[in-house]
């Protein structure tokens, strides 16, 4: 499940992106026309860019965590396959004969113990 964060142009096409754009433009126009302080309008643009960078940073961290989980799952699966094959090989080597069932020695021990 790969998450692909939105690019700036794609983000502006969403409802939230469009709302954020309108609010930013209204703030900048308020700062320039009514208050008369262009620096205040610049701060609104910097705030918007900072929020977008924060969003992208969190998306990158989420992607890294997802990749780490996928790598761990593959390693766990490989370790499980290797341990199963080693267990099967040790059972075959211990028996020496492939025709004898694996629990045959256990049933022989039970017969000796109970006199059966």
Question: What does this molecule look like?
Answer:
The protein is mainly α and 116 residues long. It has one domain. It is built from four helices and no strands. The mean pLDDT is 76.
Write the layout of secondary structure elements.
Layout: H1 8-12, H2 15-35, H3 38-95, H4 104-114
Helix pairs in contact: 2-3
Measured as a percent range, the helix fraction is over 70%
Q: What count of helical segments does DSSP give?
A: 4
Structural classification: mainly alpha
End-to-end separation: 59 Å
The amount of beta strand, in percent, is under 5%
Task: Please provide the ordered H/E string of secondary-structure elements.
Answer: HHHH
> Unreliable runs, pLDDT <50, ≥5 residues?
none
Give a short account of the largest sheet: none
Shape: rod-shaped
What radius of gyration results from the CA coordinates? 33 Å
Q: Report mean pLDDT, rounded to a whole number.
A: 76
Can you tell me the number of structural domains? 1
Number of strands: 0
């Amino acid at each position: 499940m790969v998450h692909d964060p939105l690019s700036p142009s794609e983000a502006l096409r969403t409802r939230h992106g469009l709302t954020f754009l309108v609010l930013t433009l209204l703030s900048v126009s308020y700062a320039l026309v009514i208050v008369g302080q262009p620096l205040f309008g610049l701060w609104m643009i910097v705030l918007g860019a900072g929020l977008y960078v924060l969003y992208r940073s969190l998306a990158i961290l989420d992607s890294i965590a997802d990749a780490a989980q996928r790598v761990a799952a593959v390693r766990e699966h490989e370790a499980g396959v290797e341990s199963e094959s080693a267990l099967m090989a040790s059972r075959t080597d211990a028996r020496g004969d492939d025709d004898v069932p694996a629990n045959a020695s256990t049933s022989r021990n039970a017969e000796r113990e109970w006199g059966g």
